UniProtKB/TrEMBL annotation:
Residues 351-420 form the Ubiquitin-like domain. It comes from the Eukaryota. This is Leucine-rich repeat-containing protein 51. The keyword 4Fe-4S does not apply. Keywords: Coiled coil, Cytoplasm, Cytoskeleton, Leucine-rich repeat, Phosphoprotein, Repeat. PROSITE patterns: LRR (PS51450). InterPro entries: Leu-rich_rpt (IPR001611), LRR_dom_sf (IPR032675), TBCEL_Ubl (IPR047991), Ubiquitin-like_dom (IPR000626), Ubiquitin-like_domsf (IPR029071). It holds the Pfam family Ubiquitin_2. Acts as a regulator of tubulin stability. PANTHER family: LEUCINE-RICH REPEAT-CONTAINING PROTEIN 51. SUPFAM superfamilies: L domain-like, Ubiquitin-like.
Length: 424
């Protein structure tokens, strides 16, 4: 059901968190807020407001009474206003400026590209540490204004904003640790390197679902661009050569990499993908969300050596030589045939006679008896068979079930089968 248009933040707040819709609850982030002002407010003592307000998809277009917002939101530190109809930054500023302890603000899917964010408005965001602008189509000019006015900003979300390029800010943002910029159209590495220039303290860079095709940068330059990068997500990017993977080693603090769904890995098996990536990235401790244990690293590096050992010298990657120095030249793994044995050479004992025979192990005991009729000159109904495993400590086992397959006895070359006539 569509929400009515033209609703204010304060109107929605009063409706959602009224005692009828939001009864008092105990627990983290919950509690009744009793403001000291304004005196005589009809809302006073009535609202049961948590410190985390979720007002998404409520049709909000404006702030409403700022005094009421200040009175009831003094304790709020998280505010979700996603998927509303806020298109004027001035209205957002009226809300935020009256929530003095706000640290997290989600403005995703509001049409905020329709207005210009002035620095005076952006100043009201000064205390925000986590800002979400996904699918807001916020321009880079807006982002730059925010960066200049939010000195403590640590996490910024700019997904689904149709960015094809990155515009450098006139000032660096030293505080930002996490940048989430997935689902855009950033294809050229020259655009990604601008992010390193703008955010030198970046710890986590999430670039999934962009069309980045290659990493065109020298190793020294990469180390200077992202000196503090610990985690990078390149899921479903366009990387298609191993040289790009090797360049990730240039980030001096990199520990975690996500690389699912890239063209480079499509022709490899699941095992090959993981082991070859681990072997090429010696410093990472987590790959695609899974911890890389010491034992798995050693297995992967040994796998890497054997994977490339048959190639001509000119086709062997440099990492191969590093690992040979570490482990030495390895022998190829022995090929072990785990298929069940199809036949066995056994000794058939009957009275004083011994005959060596090759028998099929897929046949049943009844079929073996038919095969032995001409050898022992007994009818199948008058024949008892006993199987002796050459290593068995308990003596012969009677083969009493006619429909049982011979392979189920574990018969091997050198075992013995004794034939005796049935006593009448």
């Amino acid at each position: 059901m569509d929400q009515p248009s033209g609703r204010s933040f304060m109107q929605v707040l009063c409706e959602k968190y009224s005692p009828e819709n939001f009864p008092y609850r105990r627990g983290p982030g919950m509690g009744v807020h009793v403001p000291a002002t304004p005196q005589g407010s009809p809302m006073k003592d009535r609202l049961n407001l948590p410190s985390v307000l979720v007002l998404n998809s409520c049709g909000i277009t404006c702030a409403g009474d700022e005094n009421e917002i200040a009175a009831f939101c003094a304790h709020v530190f998280e505010l979700d206003l996603s998927d509303n109809k806020l298109e004027d930054w001035h209205e957002v500023s009226k809300i935020v400026s009256n929530v003095p302890h706000l640290e997290f603000l989600n403005l995703s899917s509001n049409p905020l590209s329709l207005s210009v964010l002035e620095r005076s408005c952006a100043g009201s965001f000064a205390g925000v540490r986590k800002l979400v602008l996904n699918n807001s189509k916020a321009s880079w000019e807006t982002v730059h204004t925010i960066l200049q006015e939010l000195p403590d900003l640590e996490e910024l979300f700019l997904c689904l904003n149709d960015y094809e390029t990155v515009s450098c800010s006139p000032v660096c943002c030293q505080s930002l640790k996490l940048l989430h910029i997935t689902d855009n159209n950033l294809q050229d590495w020259t655009e990604i390197r601008k992010l390193g220039i703008m955010f030198p303290s970046l710890d986590t860079l999430i670039l999934a679902n962009n069309n980045l095709t290659t990493i065109e940068e020298s190793e020294d330059s990469l180390a200077r661009l992202f000196p503090n990068l610990r985690s990078i997500n390149l899921h479903k990017s366009g990387l298609h050569c191993w040289e790009d993977i090797d360049k990730l080693n240039s980030f001096p603090k990199l520990e975690e990499v996500k690389l699912l769904g890239i063209p480079l890995l499509q022709s490899y098996t699941t095992e090959e993908r993981r082991k070859l990536l681990i072997a090429r990235l010696p410093s990472i401790t987590k790959l695609n969300g899974s911890i890389v244990a010491d034992g798995e690293r050693e297995d992967s590096e040994r796998f890497f050596i054997r994977y490339y050992m048959e190639l001509p010298e000119e086709e062997v990657p440099f990492r191969y030589h590093e690992l040979v120095t570490k482990y030495g030249k390895l022998e190829p793994l022995a090929v072990v045939d785990l298929r069940p044995q199809s036949s066995a050479k056994v000794e058939v004992h009957f009275q004083d006679k011994v005959e060596e025979m090759s028998i099929r192990l897929d046949q049943t005991v009844a079929e073996l008896k038919k095969h032995l009729k001409t050898v022992v000159q007994l009818s199948t109904s008058n024949m008892l068979l006993f199987y002796l495993d050459q290593e068995a400590p308990f003596g012969p086992e009677e083969m009493k079930y006619s429909s049982r397959a011979l392979h189920s006895y574990g018969i091997r070359d050198g075992d013995k089968i004794y034939v005796e006539p049935r006593m009448k």
